Amino acid sequence: MGHLHRGGVLAAALALLLTTTTAAAAAPAAAAADRYRNPVSAGFADTFADPVVVRGDDGLWYAFGTSDPLREGERQAHRVPIARSADLVDWTYVGDAFAPDQRPSFAAPGAAFWAPDVRRIGDRWVMYVTVTDTTVSGDTFDTAIGAATAPTPAGPWTFADSPVVAPRPGGGGGYLWTIDPSQFTDVDGRSYLYFGSYYGGISVTELTPDGLHAVGTPSLVAIDNKFEGGYVLRHDGWYWLFASTANCCAGPATGYSVQVGRARDPRGPFVDRDGQRLDVSRAGGTPVLTQNGNRWIGTGHNAVLTDLSGQDWIAYHAIDRADPYLDEPFGINERPMLLDRLDWVDGWPTVNAGAGPSEDARPAPVTTGRVDARFDTADLGGWRGGTGHWRVTGGVLAGTGTLTARAGLGGDVRAEADLRLAGADTAGLRLGRVDVTVGGGRLTARESGGATASVPLPAGLDLTDRHNLAVEIRDRRLVAELSPARLGDQLAVVALTLTRPAAGPLALRADGGPAEFDNVSAAALYRPVRHTVAPPRVGPVLAGYSDEFTGGLDPAWQWIRPNPAATVTGGALRWPVESTDLVGTGNTAGVLLRDAPAGDYVAETKVTLDLGEDVVRNYQQAGLVAYVDDDRFARLAQVAIWNTRQVEYGYELPFAGRPVYGGSIVGTPATTTWLRLAHHVDRATGEHEFRAASSRDGTHWTWGAVWTFPADTTPRIGLVAHGGATPAVTAEFDYLRFYR
Which residues form the active site (predicted)? Predict the structure, then answer.
C-alpha cells in the first residue's frame, strides 16, 4: 500500500512534478547468480515499495513499485517505476509506466499511483493500480482502482478511461480504502480482482473477460481494520489469500507482516491453519512472513513468483530499522524490495522454512536451465532434427511436427514453455516417453505405453493467445499446468503417475498445423523443504521468578503508577482495565513489573478479558510487556481495535527526539488467551530480542514478530491492563511464569 497509517493518510505528500524515462533496450540474458543478498533493489533504488514481479515475453523479469522517489535526496516521485532483471537478483531501472501528465480522466491532477499489480489477460498485459485522488469528490483520498494496458511489461502503458472499482463512500464518513489491487484468473476462466484495506477490509469482485470492469456484487474476504495488500494464488487445489497486517509505515517501529488463509472457492471463506476465518471479528491468519530480529522490520505487501526450477519466491518490501526513512525522519518510509524463498511445509506457505527475512547471502533463484531457449536469434544449434518445418521469426519459434533439444533430461525435472496455437490442433512438450499437450479443449498428459490423464480447459479459452505450459516430474509423479503468465492462476492442472522415469530429451510438438514456442526451459526440479525451523524452546519453570497469584501480590512486584484497584483474589490478579495509555508522551498507564532472569527465558501469562465481538471498544487491552521505560517497551496484549479483536505486539522506542509506536499481529485471541515473550540475547550485538506468541488453548501456539532492545538496557517483564474504562471490564491474570 502507499503511505497510510491506521486512521488516515500520512502527512508526507507526494510531489506534483513527476518524471519518466524511455524504457531501455532489453538487457542480455545472463547466467543465474549463485548467491544473492537482500535488498535486491539496492542497485537501482533505495525504496521500491509494494513490489510485484512478472516474467515478460522476452524471458526477462519485470518489477513494478509504488510511486515514490527511488533514491534519497531525489524528492520527486516516479509514476510506477519499472525495473528489469535477467536473474531476479541484479535489477536495472528502465523507466516509469506513466508520464508526468498521464492520468485517466477520473483521476484528480494531484493523484498518485500505488501498489500496482500486473497480469497477462488475453493478448496483452494489464496493470491494476490504486488511484489515490479522483474527481468524484473534493476528498483528497477518494481512492479507486484504475487499469492500464500494454503490449509488453515495459510498456507503453495506456490508461483505461473508467475505473475498474470506483470510489466507495464509507459508512463512517469519507471513502473506503479502495486500494491494493490484485487480479486472479480461476480454472473456469473467470477473472477476479481483490482490493481494499483497513477501512473497508479486503473484498473480491468478478471482472469482465477483458479484465477492465467489475461485475456483480463484491464479497468481503478479510475483515476491515486488520488486513490489506491481498494477493491470491491457487496451490494444491486451494485458493490462498496472502494479506498484510498491522502498520506499513511507522518508521523504526513498523511491524507489518504477511498472513495467509485458504479456501475452496475464490470468494472464500478463507480460514487459517487453526480453522479461524479471516472475515470475522476475531480474525485468523497464519503467519507467512514476519520480522525475526535482524535488520529487516515491516516485512509485507507481497507478491509470489516461481523460478525455472519450480521453487516459489516471495517478493515484498521491508524497512531497515537503522535507516527507516527515505530522507528526513517521519517522511517517506524507505521500503526496498526483498526476495526470499517461499516454502510449502505440511501444505502451508512459510518464508525460509519459517526463519523469516534474510540479510545474509543465500542461494539465488534458478533462472537458467539445461535447456534455456529464448529464440533471440535464428540459430537452432541447440536443437536436432525432428519432423516438420521449424524456424525462428520475430523472437519466437514457429513450426509443426516435432523438434528435439540436444540436452538430455533425467531425474526430477521442471520444463516449461510459452506457447500459442497458430493453426495447430494440439501443441505441447514431450519429456522422454511423456507428452503433455493442449488443444481440443483439454490439457492432456499421456505416457507412451502407460496411462493418460486429461482435464478440460475453460470454455471459450483462446489458445491463439500466448499461455505458459509448465510440467514437473518428481518421483514418477507428473503435474502439469496451463496459466496466463505463471503466477499461480492456473487455467487447468493435470496429474499423472508414471510407470517409469521420464528420462530422455525434451521435445516440442505441434500437430495439425503450426504453433509458436518461446522461453523454453528445462531445469532440475527444486528440492522441497520438509520441516520448519524450531520455535523457541520452553524449559522448566523458574519458580523464584514466577507468581501463581495464590497468596496475595508477591513483594517482588514493582509498580509504575500503582493502581490500588488491581488486587489478587481467588487465585488471580484482577485488574479493572484503566482509562489510560502507555503510547506517546502521556504515559498514564499503570505497569506491574518483575525483574527477569539473566540469559534466555520465556515469560508466559494467561489472561481472561471479555471484550465481546464486532462492537467498537477502542483500545481496551491486557497482556504482557517487556519494559525499559515509558518510551521503550514491547507490549503483547489482546486488544479491541475498532470492530476487531486482535493480539497486538506493539512497540515503542525513542527516535529523532520523540517516541515512535508501531506493532505487529500475533495470532487470534479468545476470551481467555495465553501469551508468551521469548527472550534471547544476540551473541554478536548483545541486543535483547523478544519474540511473541499467543495461544487460544495454552497448547497450540502461534509465534510471530521479534522486537529488540539495545544491549545496554535491562528490560523487565510485567503486566498491563489499560486503553479504556468504558464499558467496564476486568482483566484476570492467572499467573506470570518464567521458563528457562
Answer: 50, 228
